[in-house]
Amino acid sequence: MNDEKVARVEAWVRENMLSDGGAHDWLHVDRVRLLAEAMARTEGARMELTLLCALLHDISDYKLNGGDRTKAAAMARQRLTEDRFDAQTVDLVSDYLTVSGFSQSASQDRSQWPLEWKIVQDADYLDALGAVGVARVFWFAGHRGEPIYSDPELPPVGEWSDRVKRTRSTLAHFEKKLLRLHDSMLTSSGRALGEARHKRMLDFVNGLVEEWNCHDVAKLEQS
Ligand code: ADP
Ligand code: NI
């Protein structure tokens, strides 16, 4: 691996990525890079490819660039080609940025992905789970002016399905995506880290349900 060239890419990402100032920012990319680096070591993946995919994965998020899902791949291709990374690496990084923009789509057979793509996808999911995931989701929704939830009654998590999903609220994003992410991990290191982070997130959500409905007041009456 050429450490100097990777460090130059890192500096370029810090200067050029589109940031929303809280959920998609350099610090998110830095955490994904650190997670992916450790996972690549455990899984025996190609380190340079893993780091480049992690560093560049949010260079131009479509939610922040006016909806263009191809821009990130084009920017990465141009930057890596200028610095004379080999053609296979350039292709693999820019193809990852193309497919990850559509990774929720059912047409993707992610089991066929190169290991390095799987690791970076899992690392990105890990940063949407756990305590950091809770902080990011409320930051993102607050930034967009979305309410926490829109009903005085919040059912237990096991009964959320349609009722919570239909609301335009932060909790709908938990139901639609965050509480399912741990089942979408593609690597064993992602699954191992994901289980602990999922549990921490679920503990938080269960606490939120209890307090939202003020069920803890029952404890006052018992004391
Ligand atoms: P990434 O691009 O890093 O893979 P996403 O773009 O899906 O991840 O989300 C970035 C962060 O913003 C995550 O923490 C996610 O929970 C949060 N987020 C994404 N979409 C929504 C939404 N509709 N409502 C609230 N939070 C969201
Ligand atoms: Ni990301």
**Which cofactors or ions or other ligands sit in this model?**
adenosine-5'-diphosphate, nickel (II) ion
Q: Beta-strand percentage?
A: under 5%
Order of helices and strands: HHHHHHHHHHH
**Parts with pLDDT < 50 across at least 5 consecutive residues:** none
Structural class: mainly alpha
- Report the mean per-residue pLDDT as an integer: 94
Give the helix tally.
11
Q: What is the approximate shape?
A: elongated
Number of strands: 0
What is the percent of helical residues? 55-70%
Radius of gyration: 19 Å
Explain what this protein looks like in three dimensions.
By secondary structure, this protein is mostly helical. Helices cover 61% and strands 0% of the residues. The chain has helices at residues 3-16, 26-43, 47-56, 71-82, 87-100, 115-126, 130-143, 161-165, 170-176, 188-212, 217-222. The longest helix has 25 residues, at 188-212. The radius of gyration is 19 Å and the shape is elongated. The mean pLDDT is 94. The structure holds adenosine-5'-diphosphate (ADP) and nickel (II) ion. Residues 23-24, 58, 61, 124, 128, 133, 136-137, 140-141, 170, 173, 178 line the site of adenosine-5'-diphosphate (ADP). Nickel (II) ion binds at residues 28, 32, 57-58, 124.
Write a concise synopsis of the structure shown:
The protein has 223 residues and is mostly helical. It has helices at 3-16, 26-43, 47-56, 71-82, 87-100, 115-126, 130-143, 161-165, 170-176, 188-212, 217-222.
